[in-house]
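Working notes for the structural subgroup meeting. M.R. asked for a predicted model of this chain before we commit to crystallization trials. I am recording the input and output together here so anyone reviewing the notebook later can reproduce the run.

Input as submitted:
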Amino acid sequence: MQQQSELVSMILLKLKDIAPAAENNIETKFIILEKGKISAEAQNKSCLALVADETAAVHFQLWGDECDAFEAGHIIHLTHGIFSYRRNNLVLRAGKRGKVEKIGEFTMSFVETPNMSEIQWIPDPSSNSNKRIPGHLISPHSRVFPPIL
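Returned structure, recorded in token form:
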């Protein structure tokens, strides 16, 4: 029960509010909608998943044992996550400092658009920092996980 009360007391970022950055500062909750094939390169196992909350969807990178531990319908709590490019694909992931844990199943409202991984992000012209802002939409849906018609 302590874990549930800790989750309620913290402020979670909505997926529509994430932006690419080189910092592990994303704390959010989402449901896994679909999981792609597991690929094994050398000793590294990974797979991509389509995840969503009530505001947006995004591609989420699972690594190692996470690929087998999480399935479609699982509700996940991500702490110290990072939204950045991995092999020219913009993905949300735990990274080395982050943590993912299952906190429930099947009972979460979600939307599939916009997909934050399908937005072209550009440098913020009003800022001298590395901050990025949405430029234009590449695709309204995931090109990796196309919608079922």
